[in-house]
């Protein structure tokens, strides 16, 4: 469909400028497919506004034409929530041009960013002012602020600093009628009614389009200790976390669990300089980071003493501390390369679950046994943020099994994993969201009253189901 033959595309071009409305197949292709290739779609148009005012006018135009809007940031999502369906009727609203850092205030310890700003750019802007923006993701070079807000991303430093919901002070949001809700306050305390920003954090773009956000900043660490330890099993890892926290308290910034299969896949597709930090073919590893903001204190000796005690107690079999910032980066590269390495192995099944920290060993033992019985030879890739109970519990096909055969067992694999999560009172999605991929399981395990309340909120804010219809919540069958 050409720009001039579609009245909506022409209206959008009048708002943002003709170069920023894409309709040709070659131009829209990169906006219509997800990172994993699971949800290819077709957009009526891709529109790229430059500021909040243009977003508001675009939303109003789409509403007038009855066209659904799919907000998109870096398009790094894994659940099919940020790409159009295959109907060719949805408009992708890309926020990639809205990438300004509006304000960094070291005295307030806050910063305001537009939705298209990448997480890495946010980190760099904070660092330039002597502050720390602690959200850290493997995809931070492409993941954007609007996306992490909409999915309530957690990341690798959530143990100390919390997830996106904990870091967000204020939002600017375009609503379905084209009005702009300006809640971009840097205030830490405001008891004047409902905390409306919380409605949009984790809403996956179904209630409004986040155009900017204000975040907390922190003092940067003056000393960081990064260590890689081999542990005999997940129970030992949980015990090590408790022991380490007891020794250094809130200085534990990150605590990542990685199983042997995950590490082997990384080492099978290594980047430059990647190698196993320890010898011995150990079954599980922990990557930990301990940071101190005071220049007068160094936690290294306390970490070394904690690891020595853990070795004596059988929680750790071997460990190495990074001797430089470069070595620390190399250790983190092993962890961050897991998703890409698994993709290179072929078709994979992914789970983003959470259980209470104490139940992590029980979940892994139950899920491993259930999947081994259901799909003999299945390879279990387990890694994640043990400090907050969030595991990326993924599966790769067995040797000799085709991608097609593996796809055929995917629903059974999901069902078994989700049933175990439910029995342990966990969540089927800890940071990736629901999107389209997990909607059936979400409706199965989320309390019916909770789903009903979400549907009422959706109808109140977006009665025509303009934003991301069919993602998170099922498509509305009635306008009443």
From TrEMBL:
Presence of keyword Disulfide bond: no
FAD-binding PCMH-type domain ranges (all copies): 39-220
Organism superkingdom: Bacteria
Keyword Flavoprotein recorded: yes
InterPro entries with a match to the protein in the record: FAD-bd_oxidored_4_C (IPR004113), FAD-bd_PCMH (IPR016166), FAD-bd_PCMH-like_sf (IPR036318), FAD-bd_PCMH_sub1 (IPR016167), FAD-bd_PCMH_sub2 (IPR016169), FAD-linked_Oxase-like_C (IPR016164), FAD-oxidored/transferase_4 (IPR051264), Oxid_FAD_bind_N (IPR006094)
PROSITE patterns according to UniProt: FAD_PCMH
The family this protein is said to belong to: Belongs to the FAD-binding oxidoreductase/transferase type 4 family.
Protein name as it appears in the record: FAD-binding oxidoreductase
């Amino acid at each position: 469909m050409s720009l001039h033959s579609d009245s909506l595309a022409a209206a959008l071009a009048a708002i943002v400028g003709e170069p920023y409305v894409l309709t040709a197949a070659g131009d829209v292709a990169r906006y219509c497919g997800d990172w994993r290739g699971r949800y290819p779609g077709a957009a009526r148009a891709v529109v790229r506004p430059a500021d909040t005012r243009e977003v508001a006018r675009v939303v109003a135009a789409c509403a007038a034409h009855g066209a659904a809007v799919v907000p998109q940031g870096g398009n790094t999502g894994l659940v099919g929530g940020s790409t159009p369906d295959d109907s060719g009727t949805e408009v992708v609203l890309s926020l990639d041009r809205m990438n300004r850092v509006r304000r960094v205030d070291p005295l307030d310890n806050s910063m305001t960013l537009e939705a298209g700003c990448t997480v890495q750019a946010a980190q760099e802007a904070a660092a330039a002012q002597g502050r720390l923006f602690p959200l850290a993701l493997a995809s931070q070079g492409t993941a954007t602020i609007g996306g992490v807000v909409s999915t309530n991303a957690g990341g690798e430093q959530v143990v100390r600093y919390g997830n996106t919901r904990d870091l967000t002070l204020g939002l600017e949001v375009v609503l379905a009628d084209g009005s702009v809700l300006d809640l971009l306050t840097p205030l830490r305390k405001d008891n004047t009614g409902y905390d409306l920003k919380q409605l949009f954090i984790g809403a996956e773009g179904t209630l409004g389009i986040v155009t900017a956000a204000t975040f907390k900043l922190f003092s940067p660490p003056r000393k960081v200790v990064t260590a890689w330890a081999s542990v005999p099993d997940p129970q030992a890892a949980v015990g090590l976390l408790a022991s380490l926290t007891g020794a250094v308290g809130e200085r534990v910034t990150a605590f990542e669990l990685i199983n042997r299969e995950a590490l082997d896949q990384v080492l099978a597709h290594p980047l430059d300089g990647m190698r196993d930090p320890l010898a011995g073919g150990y079954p599980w590893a922990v990557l930990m980071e301990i940071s101190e903001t005071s220049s007068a204190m160094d936690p290294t000796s306390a970490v070394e003493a904690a690891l020595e005690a853990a070795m004596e107690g059988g929680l750790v079999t071997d460990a190495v501390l990074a001797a430089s910032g470069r070595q620390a980066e190399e250790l983190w590269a092993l962890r961050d390369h897991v998703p890409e390495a698994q993709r290179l192995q072929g078709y994979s099944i992914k789970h983003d679950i959470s259980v209470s920290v104490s139940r992590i060993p029980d979940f892994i033992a139950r899920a491993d046994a259930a999947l081994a019985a259901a799909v003999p030879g299945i390879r279990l890739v387990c890694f994640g943020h043990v400090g907050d109970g969030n595991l990326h519990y993924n599966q790769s096909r067995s040797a000799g099994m085709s991608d097609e055969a593996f796809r055929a067992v995917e629903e059974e694999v999901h069902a078994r994993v989700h049933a175990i999560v439910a029995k342990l009172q966990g969540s089927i999605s800890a940071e990736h969201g629901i999107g389209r991929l997990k909607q059936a399981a979400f409706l199965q395990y989320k309390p019916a009253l909770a789903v009903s309340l979400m549907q009422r909120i959706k109808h109140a804010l977006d009665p025509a189901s303009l934003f991301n219809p069919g993602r998170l919540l099922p498509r509305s069958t009635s306008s009443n």
